[in-house]
Design brief:
Low-confidence stretches: none
Number of strands: 7
CATH topology: Rossmann fold
Structural class: alpha/beta
Mean pLDDT: 82
Order of helices and strands: EHEHEEHEEEHH
CATH architecture: 3-Layer(aba) Sandwich
Number of helices: 5
CATH superfamily: P-loop containing nucleotide triphosphate hydrolases
Strand order of the largest sheet: 1-7-6-2-5-4-3
Distance between the termini: 21 Å
Number of domains: 1
Shape: globular
Strand content: 15-25%
Largest sheet: 7 strands, mixed
Oligomer: single chain
Length: 172
């Protein structure tokens, strides 16, 4: 499934991500792709807000490579935020502390994910963020069938994604 919408402000980008957050479960991976300044970290702030975390704590892990934001409730998964910009394309995620245990118990979001696609699970969500102009962004989400079918949620993940993107498109 491929869905596209536009956002007019950083707040709208965050709001879109916050709406997506409740669909995420431990083990989900989001691959963010976009140019410098496209809004990848802004998107992660929205995810954090949607997961009940403080979005003010979110910063780009450009130099530290990985930031982990612990959940507010013990039963919720942490949000693990990776910046792959400085990683060698052949870098192993385990070498930066992302063991398979971490990746299955957390929600993983990777900025500059196009550098390490081959190391992400095949059922990752791909979110491409493109500049339309100084403020507006076009977001294209690619959700593989494996991801759409992985969790039993009501409404289905596919229906929920369509609702979120259709609502955002009608506002743009």
């Amino acid at each position: 499934m491929i869905l596209t919408c536009a956002t007019k402000t950083p707040f709208e980008t965050e709001t879109l991500a916050a709406a997506l957050a409740p669909m995420l479960v431990p083990g989900d991976a989001l691959a963010l792709v976009g140019e410098l300044g496209a809004g990848k970290t802004c998107f992660v702030r929205g995810l954090a807000r949607g997961l009940g975390l403080d979005p003010a704590l979110v910063s780009s892990p450009t130099f530290v490579l990985v930031n982990e934001y612990p959940p507010t409730h013990p039963s919720d998964p942490p949000l693990v935020h990776v910046d792959a910009y400085r990683l060698d394309m052949s870098a192993d995620l385990e070498a930066i502390g992302l063991s398979s245990d971490v990746m299955t118990s957390a929600i993983l979001v990777v900025e500059w994910a196009d550098r390490i696609f081959d190391q992400l699970s095949p059922d990752h969500l791909r979110i491409e963020i493109e500049h339309v102009d100084a403020e507006r962004r076009r977001l294209t989400l690619t959700a593989p069938e494996l991801w759409l079918d992985a969790a039993t949620t009501t409404p289905s993940r596919a229906a929920a994604l369509r609702d979120i993107f259709n609502q955002q498109s009608s506002q743009a």
